[in-house]
Design a protein that fits this description.
Structural class: alpha+beta
Number of helices: 10
CATH superfamily of the largest domain: Fumarylacetoacetase-like, C-terminal domain
Largest sheet: 8 strands, mixed
CATH topology of the largest domain: Fumarylacetoacetate hydrolase, domain 2
Number of strands: 26
Distance between the termini: 68 Å
CATH architecture of the largest domain: Alpha-Beta Complex
Strand content: 25-35%
């Protein structure tokens, strides 16, 4: 049976608005609930986590290519090493076991210990990220930034419509959703006629992004083509690439952002497999001028995934500040991966490639505070009477996303982080 069949239902209770119906079955790493229950592979179904190592122990995964060590590992990397055929076989088997009309696990209550309430576990970073690349693939975002900081009549740089612009980021500071974020410090130059100053960033921002995780790629020197890319893209997660705009403005010439980006990025804990998103493929925008042959992509290369960003002030209710969509990107994942490898760069299992800020065509769909407040000139009003130009201490930024199917939704959970005051003693007054 097709795991994407919209008529499928599970014997596990799943609310109609759940991010995790039987058609999803995303992969993650969890620990608990008991002390000594170390990090291991889990799959989300409704409000439960299905413990894959426990399923293996009960004999339900016999015939699949995995060892117990693959499923009891503290990251998904061992699982991803089996490639798309491996994760696809696991998703098909779990879909079978969880179907309402399939009795094998349903009617064996002694083995229901493989189901653990999500509220009782701790989620971890799902992959051990070897390398991280961030792209700049939203035309609306790139145009907005160009209009703010350059000639509005020539907002896009000459290369932008010819290649997916990107840079190599810092993998060590990527954290799982729920991890607090300390306000970064650095040099800024608020007055162009005065020397730079040092201290906490005053223009801290979020960036609404999605990121994809890779299977092991080809050997060094070989390219992954757009036609092959699906075989190397495991799945997607939500991603907040926090940015210190004032630090970035001073440091980025000529090599790009450094301290403005390397202090933290937040990743949601569940990896939604690319197969689960197949029903939501849509055509992307017409690319004009035509791209070079190696960037020509198969049709329907984008995905219709509505996204939103909410900000919750400390002690106050959350307020949605942006509603965007993954389909707004100009450059899609296949083009990003093909461009990344066209010069022979090798991709490893568990590498993370992020989309860049996802902005839409209207002001309420912009994917950063830089755009939403238009560089601070138009503060956003909040229900409590406050306003925001950028992110303040105590604010929690929450990213959500879900593709809507007939009677179900494929969601990603939350990607959230609370901003704490700077803890860097070098930034304290002397």
């Amino acid at each position: 049976m097709n795991p994407n069949d919209p008529t499928l239902r599970s014997w596990v209770s799943v609310a109609p608005d759940s991010d995790f119906p039987i058609q999803n079955l995303p992969l993650g790493i969890f620990s608990g609930p008991a002390a000594g229950d170390g990090p291991r592979v889990g799959v989300a179904i409704g409000e439960q986590v299905l413990d894959c190592a426990r399923l293996f122990d009960h004999g339900y995964l016999a015939g699949l290519p995995f060892t117990r060590e693959d499923l009891a590992a503290p990251s998904l990397n061992r699982l991803l090493a089996h490639g798309k055929a491996g994760t696809r076989s696991l998703r098909h088997r779990l879909s079978e076991l969880l179907r309402a009309d399939h009795a094998e696990l349903r009617d064996t209550p002694a083995h229901h210990d493989a189901l653990v309430p999500q509220r009782s576990v701790r989620m971890h970073l799902p992959v051990e990220i070897g390398d991280y690349t961030d792209f700049y693939s939203s035309e609306d975002h790139a145009r907005n930034v160009g209009m703010m900081f350059r000639d509005p009549a020539n907002a896009l740089l000459p290369n932008w419509k010819h290649l997916p612009v990107g840079y190599h980021g810092r993998a060590s500071s990527i954290v799982v959703s729920g991890t607090p974020i300390q306000r970064p410090v650095g040099q800024t130059r608020p007055n162009p006629d005065a020397p730079p100053t040092f201290g906490p960033s005053r223009l801290l921002d979020f960036e609404l992004e999605m990121a994809f995780v890779t299977y092991p790629g080809k050997a060094l020197g070989q390219q992954i083509t757009t036609a092959e890319a699906d075989e190397y893209i495991a799945g997607l997660a939500l991603f907040n690439d926090w940015s210190a705009r004032d630090v970035q403005a001073w440091e980025y010439v000529p090599l790009g952002p450094f301290l403005a980006k390397n202090f933290a990025s937040t990743l949601s804990p569940w990896i939604v497999l690319l197969d689960a998103l197949e029903p939501f493929r849509v055509a992307g925008p017409e690319q004009d001028p035509p791209v070079l042959p190696y960037l020509v992509t198969p049709p329907m290369g984008h995905y219709d995934i509505p996204l939103e960003v909410a900000i919750a002030p400390e002690g106050g209710p959350e307020h949605v500040v942006s509603r965007s969509n993954f389909k707004y990107l100009y450059w899609n994942m296949r083009q990003q991966l093909a461009h990344h490898t066209v010069g022979g760069c090798n991709i490893r299992g568990g590498d993370l490639l992020a989309s860049g800020t996802i902005s839409g065509p209207t002001p309420d769909s912009f994917g950063s505070m830089l755009e939403l407040s238009w560089r601070g000139t138009g503060p956003l009003p909040f229900p409590d009477g406050s306003e925001r130009k950028f992110i303040e201490d105590g604010d929690t930024v929450i990213l959500r996303g879900a593709a809507q199917g007939p009677g179900y939704r494929i969601g990603f959970g939350e990607c959230s982080g609370k901003v704490l005051p700077s803890g860097n003693s070098a930034a304290s007054p002397r």
